[in-house]
Every structure is written in C-alpha cells, then in structure tokens.
C-alpha cells in the first residue's frame, strides 16, 4: 500500500516498508514455530526433542509454502477450523447450555470489583491482546492482494476481519462472563 501511495514520487518508501515488515515478522515466525513445537511435545510426545520438532515444523511449513498459496490456503483453513471449533463449543455452552454454575447464576456484573485497580489492569491487559490480535487483519490483505479483483475484495476482507475480531473480543468474553462470572 505504501508503494501504491508513493509510486509516482519514489520507490524508496515502498521498499523500506517491505523491508521493515519482513524484518519485524521473521523473528516472530521463529518464536511461533518454537512455541508450537513445545506445545506439540507437551501435548502429544513428551519424549520428543524440541529442536528436532522445530526442524520438522519448518520443513513442513516450507513445503506448504513451496507448493503455492492454494495448498497453504486449504491447510490454513483446516487449522482455523480446528482452532475455532472449541471456541464455538465454549461459546455455545455459555449462551445456550450450562457449565457448573449455570447461565447467569452469579447475578450479573460484580459492581464491587469495578473500577478496582486489579479489574482495571485486567481490562487494559485484554485490550492489549485484542488490539494486538486485530493487527492480524492486515495479514489477510497480503493474501487477498494476489487475487484478480483485489480492489473489490480488499475492503470486504478487511470488513470481515474487523467483524470477526470484534466478535472474538466482545461477544465471546461477554458470553463467558455470563456463564462463569468475573
């Protein structure tokens, strides 16, 4: 987008932006692969060597990228379904079912803890998580930018990303609060 904005003046801002973007993301990829390997080891294979799992994960991710966006899209979609399904179950039980305490059995928002320092810090922490997660919406534009009708699709993709982020950080917490309490 920076390249498009400055293409008539200079290619330098676009190049600097691309360089800065990938410079910031490359350490994040390594950290996430290490975390995924550690979680996988803890959940499924306690005797596995984390370093070997990291190498295996990197090889698999490279292979997925090598074979193109189509395979990566379907693989990412399968992973998204696996991640979202438990969240939908929890949300459904919170809204329509019952955990141990039952829907709204705690009597509503505990006004006595608001605006305590602890609750204020908790809200600020979750606002940070919500804001950080909303930055993922721009990642959708990196994929949609490769589509044929990107000028028409980019606003749609950003709107859906924004809506999903809003739902994830308002509806889900409120539904869980309604069932479990503060």
Fold and architecture overview:
By secondary structure, this protein is an all-alpha fold. It has helices at 2-6, 12-44, 50-66, 69-96, 117-134, 137-144, 150-180. Helix 2 packs across helix 3 (50-66), helix 4 (69-96) packs parallel to helix 7 (150-180) and helix 6 (137-144) runs antiparallel to helix 7 (150-180).
Q: Give the overall form.
A: globular
Helix fraction by DSSP (H/I, runs of at least 4): over 70%
How many DSSP E strands? Answer: 0
Quaternary structure annotation: single chain
Topology pattern, helix = H, strand = E: HHHHHHH
Q: Over all CA atoms, what is the radius of gyration? A: 21 Å
- How many strands, which pairing sense, and closed or not: the largest β-sheet? none
A few lines on this structure:
This protein is an all-alpha fold. The chain has 7 helices and no strands.
Q: What would the keywords be for this entry?
A:
182 residues, mainly alpha, globular
Topology of helices and strands:
Elements lengths: L1 H5 L5 H33 L5 H17 L2 H28 L20 H18 L2 H8 L5 H31 L2
Helix pairs in contact: 2-3, 4-7, 6-7
């Amino acid at each position: 987008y920076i390249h498009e904005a400055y293409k008539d003046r200079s290619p330098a801002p676009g190049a600097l932006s691309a360089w800065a973007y990938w410079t910031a993301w490359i350490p994040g990829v390594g950290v996430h692969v290490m975390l995924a390997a550690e979680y996988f080891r803890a959940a499924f294979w306690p005797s596995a060597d984390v370093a070997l799992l990291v190498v295996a994960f990197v090889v698999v991710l490279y292979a997925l990228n090598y074979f193109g966006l189509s395979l990566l899209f379907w693989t990412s979609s399968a992973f998204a379904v696996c991640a979202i399904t438990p969240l939908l179950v929890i949300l459904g039980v919170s809204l329509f079912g019952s955990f141990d305490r039952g829907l709204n059995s705690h009597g509503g928002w505990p006004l006595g803890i608001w605006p305590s320092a602890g609750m204020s810090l908790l809200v600020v922490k979750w606002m940070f998580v919500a804001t950080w997660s909303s930055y993922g919406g721009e990642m959708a534009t990196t994929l949609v930018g490769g589509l044929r009708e990107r000028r028409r699709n980019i606003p749609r993709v950003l709107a859906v990303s924004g809506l999903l982020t809003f739902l994830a950080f308002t509806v889900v917490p409120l539904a869980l609060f309604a069932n479990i309490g503060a």
